[in-house]
Amino acid sequence: MKKFFTTLSNIWKIEDLRVRIINTLLFLLIYRVGAFVRLPGVDASQTDAKQAEGLVGLLNMFAGGSFSRISIFALGVMPYISASIVMQLLGIAVPYFAKMQKEGESGRNKINQWTRYLTIVITAVQAVAYLNSQVTANEILIANPMFTIMNTMVLTAGTLFVMWLGEKITDKGIGNGISLIIMVGIIATLPSAFLAEFQNRTTGTGGLIAFIVELIALIGVVMFTILIVQGTRKIAVQYAKRIVGNKQYGGVRQYIPLKVNAAGVMPIIFAQALMFIPATIASFFPKAATNSIIIALGDYNSWLHNILFALLIIVFTYFYTAITVNPKQMSDDMKKNGGFIPGVKPGLPTESFIDGVISKITLPGSIFLAIIAIIPSLANLVGVNNLFARFFGGTSLIILVGVVLDTLQQIESHLLMRHYDGLMKTGRVKGRSAVPAAAGTTPTAI
User: Fold this and answer.
1) Which CATH superfamily is 16-187 part of?
2) Does the pLDDT at position 161 exceed 50?
3) Are 331 and 351 in contact (CB under 8 A)?
4) Quick one: pLDDT band at residue 23, thresholds 50, 70, 90?
5) Nearest to 81 by CA among 223, 264, 280, 351
6) Mutual orientation of helices 144-172 and 78-93 as an angle, nearest 10°?
7) What is the pLDDT of residue 279?
8) Which H or E run includes 198?
């Protein structure tokens, strides 16, 4: 406990770090206040009792309850995340955007500008769909055409403002702003989920013992998730020795840390998108809604749904790792800098060696990621309420663990730069952004 208070004191002594933390908290406070401001023309009394389930429930969790509350921040940063993913895929498939990614700072500025434009388009489309699907006629207080036009503009402006807050947090605060906004939205639902589960256990089945067992299981899942997020396979790289004048350069051994889960949370997001196709088909074809397979695929607790979900996650983990980690570029960069892997010839053998290592570590990483993704369904089967079960795994838990580790790593870096002790007595806090420089990729916001 003394170490904890000493660390807090050291953090407060560093003026730059103190200002950044205060700025971050103020920006996040602005976001949370805006999450309770409802859209103009909406009857607030009709929206309080709305419950969000399925994909809507997941989006509502990311938006901190704004989605079901019909707030001006209802769409949150998800349109921006979608635009970022599209631009990342375009950078792989379209030569024009691939060339732009290699232009350094100017190229990144152009890509960011394109991402903002695409965010406006995606937000406008999603805003119309959101107003038509989530706002019923009895909740609208003004004429419908004007209501849709006005609130499409309001929702678009709200998303752009949230995106601006995220950029300000990144520049003036601590940590990745977009990731922190998503994390705050997820944490905002934790107290109500915790209280609901406590009441459910104490007044229903299981009692207090079952609730304590659930908390122990949750801690175990969090620890398991941290192992997956931080797990790396280090490849030794030896650099050739060079003599320039009277000085020696190179001749040192470094390591390329290849992450066990290089794809992050993206495979779960892609797999979830595909798993909602049966429900979409059923909405257009009423007769298909009675099909037993369609019903099983739409049931989050069914074995068919979870087995297919896990298989899709494994496939998408390999796919996303293949398009984001480039062994050829890593091999070329090592060769240009005079580096080589001991026992492996430069060039194609090095590329094949790195590709083989990635393939080997991706399999256990994808299996573990699939296990984390289906744990919420398993928690539901043993009686955990749906809202609290989401914290046992899936997208929300991976985002929480990754963002917390990244933020703690940045705080520790500020402490070590000023010659203070780190956050831990032994070892260092490792964030999820430890991506090899030769990989030629930048970690996404989530």
Assistant:
1) SecY subunit domain (1.10.3370.10)
2) yes
3) yes
4) very high
5) 264
6) 70
7) 65
8) helix 190-203
